[in-house]
Design a protein that fits this description.
Length: about 450
């Protein structure tokens, strides 16, 4: 189980006031790396690299991966770390200006990869990741590999992952003679049975606010055999499968959720569960720290973790990449940049990041190593060890205008939460979503 300090590192992209510049070198890794002898565009030997990335557990882990990379290669890696919004603004300004003053960028694939790749800002890394069998690209979780690819090209290496799971009150389930639900049908029945608002306990808490809920709806869609878009990229919010998924999500909160659910994002919904006021909570596994901090949670000793329940299409849940590291297409040190990326994401360093910095890495071999994974709750580790059979590499509509799409997609779910006509609203939303998709062609 996490300590409260180390577990907090799982929280994604904590904001900081400004840029944090770190001179890095790193620890342990592949021998024989050639970064130190790589030549820049002007023919000079590379002695330093610069990375711009989010302030995240992965970036924090690099602070302690200090001396060995510099000792091994002579290359100093300077990191500029920002909060997420500031990061995207900074990257867009620099890349639009074709700046070569940084070499590696850490970014969120679902927010900017389409825009960045369309503009020619990201280096195609397909040959890099497949050229070294000992580095083993296939060791990365399939959903994570899928997430960093677009039109058959690889635009980065996934360095953090996140999944949707079920949190539940072990004491309440035990008292009712229940086990963690394995199907969505069982989930709905258990939520109904444990719903006891008269005594201050609701059956479930989840995001109900229009935009934040969209990512959590995704696993419901996948498990019903649906998605935001079909295989041809057309809007598919009004299919029978999608409507059933939306209806279930809405019914759970409409019938068994706390009052004001449509105003709740993850902060508000997780607080309900942390206070012991909900039997179930469904959201990202990165929030486990919230419920394991004795200063903030009353369910530290009674929280359980379960895989997302199976629907008609099986248990299909998002397994996304909150942070990817890619190469600036305008860098004059691309070979050296790849050497560092390959080194810092190799199997040895991935295990170190998982075990010592509590970073949820993308390499499956790290999670399969009991020692490396020991700092994570056993219930979460168990889920991740079989993630290749269940994970889907996106948790939102796949297009550049993702913010506008989420606003559209969330509408029918809010309608369901409020007890309205889901079928009619899904049809209307699907038309609007299709118009948005058409606008990008």
């Amino acid at each position: 189980m996490f300590s409260s300090t180390r577990a907090k590192r799982i929280a994604l992209a904590a904001p900081i006031a400004g840029a944090l510049v770190i001179s890095l070198a790193a620890c342990g890794g592949a021998s024989g790396t050639s970064a130190g002898s790589d030549k820049a565009g002007d023919g000079k030997k590379v002695t330093d690299l610069t990375i711009i990335a989010a302030n995240s557990p992965w970036t924090a882990g690099l602070k302690t991966l200090a001396a060995d990379y510099k000792k091994e290669t002579g290359v100093t890696v300077n990191i500029q770390a920002y909060g997420n919004e500031q990061l995207n603004d900074t990257l867009k300004v620099k890349l639009n200006a074709k700046s070569s003053d940084f070499d590696i960028l850490g970014y969120q694939v679902q927010d900017v990869m389409r825009e960045f790749s369309r503009n020619g800002w990201l280096e195609d890394m397909t040959k890099d990741v497949t050229s070294d069998s000992s580095w083993n690209w296939k060791d990365f979780q399939p959903a994570a590999r899928d997430a960093v690819q677009l039109d058959g090209k690889v635009y980065g290496v996934p360095v953090m992952t996140e999944r949707q799971i079920v949190y539940y009150r072990t004491d309440l389930l035990k008292a009712a003679g229940l086990e963690a639900p394995k199907t969505l049908e069982e989930l709905e029945a258990d939520v109904a049975k444990l719903n006891d608002p008269a005594n201050g306990v609701y059956g479930i808490a989840m995001r109900g606010s229009r935009v934040p809920l969209v990512t959590q709806l995704s696993s419901f869609l996948y498990s019903y055999g649906a998605d935001f878009q079909d295989k041809k990229g057309k809007a598919s919010l009004d299919t029978p499968q999608a409507i059933k998924a939306i209806q279930l999500y809405g019914d759970l909160l409409h019938k068994y959720g706390p009052p004001g659910s449509t105003n709740m994002g993850w902060v508000e919904a997780s607080a309900i569960f942390a206070q012991g006021k909900a039997a179930f909570y469904i959201d990202a596994d990165s929030q486990a720290y919230t419920f394991l901090d004795k200063q903030k949670s009353s369910v530290v000793d009674t929280v359980g973790f379960a895989q997302f329940p199976a629907g008609p299409a099986g248990s299909k849940f998002y397994n996304i990449v909150p942070q990817t590291i890619g190469i600036n297409a305008f860098s004059t040190k691309k070979a050296a940049a790849w050497d560092f990326i390959k080194w810092v994401s190799n199997e040895k360093n991935s295990k170190w990041l998982l075990s010592k910095a509590t970073v949820p890495v993308a390499r499956q071999s790290a999670w399969d190593d009991s020692t490396a994974a020991a700092s994570f709750p056993a219930g979460i580790v168990k889920i991740i060890r079989t993630v290749s059979d269940h994970g889907v590499g996106h948790d939102r509509p796949q297009l550049e205008q993702v913010a506008a799409a989420r606003d559209i997609v969330g509408g029918p779910v809010v309608t369901a939460i409020e007890g309205g006509d889901v079928k009619a609203d899904a049809k209307s939303a699907n038309s609007k979503f299709q118009d948005l998709l058409n606008s990008e062609k």
